[in-house]
Amino acid sequence: MAHAALGRLHVITDEVLQTRYSHAEVAALATRGGADTVQYREKRPRLTRELVADAQVVLDACLANGAQCIVDDRADVTAAVGAHGLHLGRDDLAPVVARRLLGPDVLIGGTANSLGEAREVWQRPIDYLGVGPVYGTRSKANPAPVLGIEQLRAIVSECPVPVIAIGSITVTRIAEVLDTGAYGIAVLSAITCVADPEAATREFVEAIGEWLARHEGATA
């Protein structure tokens, strides 16, 4: 189920690295630009009702443009708004508990920063694995070590679920990342933190589309 529904380009919202656009505005701009998935990411301490309200408008923006909404960290918020998926970090709710709460039809993503972590996480009831940081990251105060393209390739070669790569991925790096066998990419700074997220998203979508066209059949 999940592999068919999983998007290729996950745009992650943020109101800390940039303050120009709200979560909902990023979602609207990115999905108008062609993103098939938006991940609502809010790390600041907020009341649950505020998170639910934010997630609802992000989901509405996604639905208006035929895209999916994945909520970061919070299974309760995911359930409250009926989001398409939940992405869990290493210190979040156990995937088995999230699956019990959300049922079989909600995408659940795990996180890994190394091959060893990946081997543990992919044994849990997840639909995809977020892997990185491939090149680095600006979004975390204490980031995991840079993974690198060869370690990404090693994880992908063993991983039984689709891999979404993350970490300072730019348009010029898309081919190198997808050549590892990664199913898709997640992007924050290169879309959310620029003046025109819609145009930036369109560039990513076009580059992914060109790569897929060159490899048609190999990734089906």
Characterization of this structure:
By secondary structure, the chain is of the alpha/beta class. It has one domain: Aldolase class I (TIM Barrel). It is built from 10 helices and 8 strands. It has helices at 2-5, 23-32, 48-64, 75-81, 95-102, 115-121, 149-158, 174-178, 189-192, 197-214; strands at 9-12, 37-40, 68-72, 85-87, 107-112, 128-131, 163-166, 184-187. An 8-stranded parallel β-barrel has the order 1-2-3-4-5-6-7-8, surrounded by 7 helices. The protein is globular, with a radius of gyration of 16 Å.
Summarize the structure.
With 220 residues, the protein is an alpha/beta fold. It is built from ten helices and eight strands.
Write the layout of secondary structure elements.
Elements lengths: L1 H4 L3 E4 L10 H10 L4 E4 L7 H17 L3 E5 L2 H7 L3 E3 L7 H8 L4 E6 L2 H7 L6 E4 L17 H10 L4 E4 L7 H5 L5 E4 L1 H4 L4 H18 L6
Parallel strand pairs: 1-2, 1-8, 2-3, 3-4, 4-5, 5-6, 6-7, 7-8
Helix pairs in contact: 2-3, 2-10, 3-4
| Structural class computed from helices and strand pairing | alpha/beta
Just give the CATH class. Answer: Alpha Beta
Helix content percent band:
40-55%
Looking at CATH, the homologous superfamily is: Aldolase class I
Radius of gyration: 16 Å
Bin the strand percentage.
15-25%
Topology pattern, helix = H, strand = E: HEHEHEHEHEHEHEHEHH
| Secondary structure: number of strands | 8
